[in-house]
Design a protein that fits this description.
By secondary structure, this protein is mostly beta strands. It has 5 helices and 25 strands. The strands form 6 sheets. A 5-stranded mixed sheet has the order 1-18-17-16-15. Helix 3 packs across helix 5. The longest helix has 23 residues.
């Protein structure tokens, strides 16, 4: 009887510890429903601008994805063919669709190389679905139409690897393996994730937990799955899941649980297929984290929200990311959070702005009459803007996160 009592006590203690861990990992999105004005200085201590070198052969109309690895920027950007330099007396060309290309820039924005190009050759791609940095091989990989095209950091083609399973729509590295997500827009996929080895062969398949029947037509939502790396470990979140999982050694481990209340986008809602009511629900866009903060970007109430929570004291912020953080550091343009990067062991928020927008901001009376926390930085930013041409490539904005 005594042994039974001790066993019950141990079970109670273990259960209590488990419950406490789960509570600590709960992120309550329901406490903030309306965005507030937040100053950049609440999160960051200094701001840096990096203009991307402009080349006549490509003018970036927008940046679609950016990562910083190996001391360089890898940028997937849309390029308007009509932006190419042409004879000023020539008639304007017919409209053409932007094309996505992958470029490498140095840490201070100097152009290094373009990595592959559109075409039908072995080293070329029809379109880029995803690009990845492979730390194990120190290579850059382009995923296109069921193939991984591997390149050296200077853009030289190495090899192509065909994936055994062609259902995968997005990919991420976990150690030397690839975790692929299977698109679930019609609700009937048998698997949600497929783990592949470095040769593209299937190791494990993970069953789809979010099946549903579409009655009035599928609503196409992108991304169905968010992948991000933090502290050397892959993390992910599915569209209809309220949990952020870490993925390591072939296992999904719950890390954060997002409380969303009635705004949670469930499979029951998806079955109705009513796109007109989507603004009533939280629709994921991105999730990432730093040492001290978590960031969740989502569409809700027709706004692009950015939710931020301090990991240590649970302080929360909700920002309308179309408006951004108020730049009180140098009174430059508002800061629209895109992601975080780590450079020389320092963590930064990153954003970017078109040269035209930066020049317009600096020319405004509001800027000229403003007094920021760092007046010298205001002068430096103004000088930078005056050196730019309005058609130059975008300017990266980095804010060093507070410790």
């Amino acid at each position: 009887m005594r042994n039974l009592s001790i066993l019950l006590m141990l079970i109670t203690v273990l259960f209590s510890c488990t419950q406490k861990k789960e509570v600590d990992n709960i992120v309550d999105l329901t406490t903030l429903t309306e965005p507030d004005v937040t100053n950049l200085s609440e999160l960051g201590s200094e701001i840096t601008y990096i203009p991307l070198e402009t080349n006549a052969s490509f003018l970036l109309s927008q940046i679609d994805k950016l990562i910083y690895e190996g001391g360089a920027w890898f940028i997937l950007g849309s390029v308007k063919p009509n932006n190419a330099v042409r004879d000023k007396n020539a008639p304007p060309p017919p409209p053409m669709m932007p094309k996505r290309s992958l470029y490498r820039f140095s840490n201070n924005g100097e152009f290094i190389c373009q990595i592959s190009q559109q075409g039908g050759g072995p080293s070329e791609y029809r379109f880029i679905e995803e690009f990845l940095y492979n730390k194990g091989n120190n290579t850059v990989d382009i995923y296109s139409q069921g193939e991984i095209k591997e390149f050296s950091l200077d853009g030289k083609w190495i090899k192509n690897t065909t994936l055994e399973n062609n259902e995968v729509t997005s990919l991420a590295y976990s150690n030397n393996q690839l975790l692929g997500f299977v698109y679930n827009g019609h609700g009937q996929s048998d698997y949600s994730f497929i783990l592949l080895d470095e040769n593209g062969q299937v190791i494990t398949k993970y069953k789809n937990k979010y099946k549903f029947n579409v009655s009035t037509g599928a609503v196409i939502i992108n991304p169905e799955c968010i992948f991000y790396q933090y502290d050397g470990i892959l993390h992910c979140k599915e569209l209809n899941s309220d949990t952020i999982f870490s993925f390591d050694n072939g296992t999904f481990n719950p890390k954060y649980i997002l409380q969303q209340g009635e705004a949670k986008y469930t499979t029951a809602v998806r079955e109705k297929g009513n796109s007109a009511k989507l603004n009533q629900f939280i629709i994921q866009k991105n999730f990432f984290e730093s040492e001290n903060y978590i960031f969740y970007q989502y569409k809700w109430k027709s706004r692009n929200n950015c939710f931020i929570q301090n990991k240590s004291n649970s302080t929360q912020y909700l920002i309308d990311n179309e408006m951004g953080l108020v730049n009180d550091l140098d009174n430059g343009p508002s800061f629209k959070i895109q992601n975080t990067v780590t450079i020389d062991d320092n963590e930064y928020l990153i954003s970017w702005i078109n040269a035209f927008e930066l020049k317009t901001h600096v020319a405004s009376d509001e800027f000229k009459n403003s007094t920021p926390k760092h007046p010298q930085k205001k002068n430096e930013m103004e000088q930078l803007a005056n050196r730019l041409d309005e058609n130059n490539n975008p300017v990266l904005m980095l804010v060093k996160l507070k410790q």
